[in-house]
Design goal:
The strands form 3 sheets. A 7-stranded parallel sheet has the order 5-2-1-8-9-10-11, sandwiched between helices. It has one domain: Rossmann fold (3-Layer(aba) Sandwich). The protein is an alpha/beta fold.
Length: 196
């Protein structure tokens, strides 16, 4: 079994999980759409330049997909141009995507169905409005209900990051048998070494 995990860019809180899965013998190749986080970059949320003090790419297999235009991550960017190469190869059994509501991931999910590949989806969706502590309005709930009703036909497994995430899927009529717990991880060995 070989997994292709598609991510927008190397992420500091994803790397420990990917390394862990690799150590456990799971065949996984990460396909990144951008490499901006491997160098110093300006973080718009923290409003300052950031350069990670550890290698985000060490300990697992990865490739960078081709793109055109700016090397940024937004809903539209990067404009990834790989839709088959490195993704739907003969040895690929599962396509794992993080996030469902961006154009590239939606397209890959649909293409995976035609290529007869299983799709695992991990997301951070919840029942609250993003950036606020209030519940989603009626229109948003209706949109999500029909959106997941359609997309559920293309997704084989939902990898829940926690209880609130799982509750969101259940509220949108996702069968609980398709939801599996895959929470974020902490590299405890790394922090134990620092403590010594």
């Amino acid at each position: 079994m070989h997994i292709k995990y598609i991510l927008t860019h190397p992420i500091q809180y994803q790397a420990p999980l990917i390394k862990y899965l690799t150590k456990k013998g799971i065949k996984i190749t990460v396909l990144y759409r951008s490499d901006f986080s491997t160098k110093e970059f300006f973080d718009t949320q923290f409003k300052k330049k950031i350069k990670w003090d550890f290698d985000l790419l060490k300990g697992y297999k990865y490739k960078f997909l081709n793109y055109i235009g700016p090397n940024k991550v937004t809903f539209f960017l990067p404009l990834t141009t790989d839709f088959y190469k490195n993704i739907f190869t003969d040895n690929t059994d599962i396509i794992w995507i993080h996030g469902i509501k961006n154009w590239y991931n939606l397209l890959i999910i649909i293409l995976a169905k035609f290529h007869k590949k299983k799709v695992f989806m991990r997301d951070e969706s919840h029942l609250l409005i993003k950036g606020a502590h209030k519940k989603r309005n009626f229109t948003n709930k209706i949109f999500n209900y029909f959106f997941y009703k359609i997309m559920d036909n293309f997704i084989d497994a939902y990898l829940s990051i926690g209880k609130i995430n799982k509750k969101f899927y259940l509220k949108n009529n996702i069968n609980k048998k398709k939801i599996f717990s895959v929470p974020y991880t902490v590299d405890n060995d790394f922090f134990l070494q620092k403590k010594k």
